[in-house]
Design goal:
The structure is a homotrimer of 343-residue chains.
Chain A lengths: L8 E6 L8 E5 L2 E7 L5 E5 L13 E3 L2 E3 L6 E2 L5 E3 L15 E5 L2 E5 L3 H6 L16 E7 L3 H9 L4 H4 L13 E7 L2 E12 L2 H7 L5 E11 L3 E10 L7 E13 L2 E10 L6 H30 L16 H21 L4
Antiparallel strand pairs in A: 1-10, 2-3, 3-4, 5-6, 6-7, 7-8, 9-10, 11-17, 12-13, 13-14, 14-15, 15-16, 16-17
Helix pairs in contact in A: 2-6
């Protein structure tokens, strides 16, 4: 069973999650064994031995091969069987392998046609590579469809309510908003004028209780790759612009669960680990104790139904999320059409 | 999805469970948000925002309105949207609301047609309102269809076995029994002569080890509203009649789970909180450690099948429960017929 | 619902598990109440009262009868109702009973036609009865189809990998193997020459680090009754043959779960309880921490599919397991055919 699009880049893991000990993560309904071989090469194969269908991730890496822990069949990174203590090494023992690349501290996986992977660039998240921005990382497992999670970021009007007192204020509803589609990229902008930030944000952005102009800009690329830039511009000439960059990566695990990777960075403020810790804790607290319960409750409410099939009320703030969903649906139709045999 | 009858009074909660902080309880398969507004008005609405389908109970009450915790839509007690920070306030945003009333320390809900609610009285449980009877309260969640629970009360022959040594004795099998139907009310009577009560009951009823005549009378009204009167009459002229009144209210949560509210009162004995505590503990212990495990095991044994569809053996003691089930089935048929469009 | 074959001997319990207090175990999808009556007679009946379908195992044994804990119906070992406080004792109250016998410290059950039970001997496991062999016992519940567990024992090539360092060495892959079918019995042999045992086995078999010849011989009878004889023959004239006998009994609980009973014995070594304890702990450790997680992961990977329907790669080492599966499938077909009405 394959859940959702195959010919897109998904984030499979944070770099640090994958070492020589095989690591299993289900992506789009398919269990994947991720590992690094003795030479350090990154590999991803179907986490299922063709002999007895046990997870290969329960085995171990020997040299360049992944060895099944049950009867010792060994596989190369391309899925070919390279050793079989139980019989002949044959082509029929080849398992699926997946194109992976490591970039921006993340392991990216392409669940579909490897040739297409080479033609498709990963969107630019090089901000993560700038150590001066002091990136903070997190992973959250979520019992919700990944699109409910991208909806959340693409409609930040929710921060006034769901994150009242921490990330949002009552000024949010008066924001000037716009959403723009360029190719398969959706941009969602929000400008909030004359806002006194919450105590948490005031400390974070060092605005000293002064009114600010805050802009929140989201760039979304399929399937769920997002860069949220928050710029705070306090009143008064002596103040410089402060920016944070929050990267959100949502990957479907099953039809109703998802992996959520996030990276938070900032381009201002002192070189201070305690400050980093507080910044990270503030974000994680919002994601874990406010967004996650709400979105998981939404999923339980939807059950196995698709949100749009239930006829939800739609408002202006939903525009970006709807545009993103349209792009995904179009890509799903194209992928389904391409996989049908010509008649 | 609606589980079971809609046009009946169900107990939704004990009064003390519902305050300004919204409270969610699933009734007949439908999640309901119960709350009290700033003016103290009680309200019950479908616990699902029409925008993103999150539970409104995750939001908060502001003045007279229930405000969604995700994007701030606000609803009045009648389900009308009264504020929408994300767009226009329109009729299409109206959510379902339910008729509720507070009576006998309980919150009663009508899941169907409000006009019919006005025509249907709640059965009399005014015994609860008599503080002199020292009411003791309990709520138990049960993984069983509510009819398995009403069966239990309507056939008290089980107390000889399931509550041997606490509520029942071997004399129970010799009881004179009768069941009577009046309209939609079922009465089930049981008279046990010359019974030496168990130590627990002997202490409770202050019978000093003397033989007694015990009558157990159940009044059942649809769907699962029961008054059990236990009268104990000891031998000897100096003894007065002692009565306890146990109210049992079963409400379907889903097709295989139920809410069970109970109130125990007594018309004799001293004004003694410790005595109340023991009386309450004795009842709760029987309900929780004897009835609940048995009835939940019965539900597991039935799976998704209906009891009567499996052809159970039926005895004289089952008469009242069968009569109650017939009344419910007739009401279900009538409700289903009424909801079909005329052809 | 009946899961799997009915006309075979299954192990239902270890003798010590069943006493006067009724014991419930689900066999082939059917809940069974096992108990010993006051006279010590062993009995097994359908664990479901015909009145309200509650488990009879929640009741108690009174004399020779099993009494329902809900309304007091009592049943004899043959399933006949012998007392009914609620009404007449009739034939229609008879419940299913199952043929049981106690042998080799185990309770064996026949879920099908009692006449056929009498014609079918239980395979010989009299080694268990030889107290000099110091039998060690274990029971493991497994979330896997019982055939995945019999596959495991019938293809011991896995010990090189799954039990590396404890039960297997790299010599295992060089073993001479053979499998033979005699009637409905499958034999699987494996001879490993010139093997230096692992430290655990070296201590167990007292081989003092010397090379040995190890033979592993499995006898399988339907449905999942196995005797594994391990013989270790060290080099050098002064050494005598050491043998262990491990009995494995797998019983289907549901279509994807099983009961696993095992007995380990040895024909050598001192009369030493500490040695017994270490021998037992070593086996249980392998079964619980190595076999069980692997086989349960295999079941999760298969989901509700049958292994062979998914087209697994098959090697020489799978021969015995495939032969056993063929015998079972043939028996299933015969049983299904016999249960169809003649046309």
């Amino acid at each position: 069973m394959s859940v959702d699009l195959k010919n897109v880049w998904y984030v499979a893991a944070m770099s640090g999650e994958v070492a020589e000990k095989p690591f299993s993560r289900t992506i789009c309904g398919t269990p994947v064994a991720l590992y690094r071989s003795a030479s350090g090469a990154l590999a991803a194969v179907h986490d299922r031995c063709p002999h007895r269908f046990v997870p290969l991730s329960m085995g171990s890496v020997k040299g360049e091969a992944l060895v099944c822990g049950y009867h010792g069949l060994a596989f190369a990174a391309d899925g070919a069987c390279v050793e079989n203590p139980q019989g002949a090494v044959t082509k029929s023992l080849t398992i699926r392998s997946f194109t992976v690349q490591e970039r921006y501290g993340l392991i990216w996986i392409w669940m579909g046609d490897a040739d297409l992977a080479a033609l498709t660039p990963i969107p630019d998240f090089s901000l993560i590579d700038d150590a001066a921005l002091r990136p903070q990382w997190g992973y959250i497992h979520s019992k919700a469809h990944f699109e409910l999670m991208t909806d959340n970021i693409l409609d930040l009007s929710h921060i006034e309510f769901l994150h009242a007192g921490t990330l949002g204020t009552e000024k949010i509803r008066d924001a000037k908003t716009a959403s723009v589609v360029e190719g398969r990229t959706v941009f969602s902008h929000r400008t909030v004028d004359d806002e006194i930030l919450t105590p948490f944000l005031d400390r974070s952005f060092e605005t000293g209780g002064r009114p600010v102009t805050r802009t929140l800009s989201v760039r979304w690329d399929p399937p769920g790759l997002m860069l949220l830039t928050v710029a705070v511009n306090p009143a008064g000439p002596e103040q410089a612009l402060r920016e944070t960059y929050n990267m959100h990566f949502m990957t479907p695990e099953t039809a109703t669960t998802a992996h959520y990777f996030w990276v938070g960075t900032r381009r201002y403020g002192p070189d201070d680990p305690e400050r980093d810790r507080l910044f990270r804790a503030g974000l994680e607290n919002a994601f874990l104790t406010e967004d996650k319960p709400m979105i998981e409750a939404q999923q339980r409410s939807l059950g196995s139904a698709e949100l749009l099939d239930l006829g939800p009320a739609l408002f202006k703030g939903d525009a970006a999320a709807i545009q993103a969903r349209r792009i995904l649906d179009e890509m799903r139709r194209a992928e389904a059409a391409a996989s049908r045999p010509a008649s």
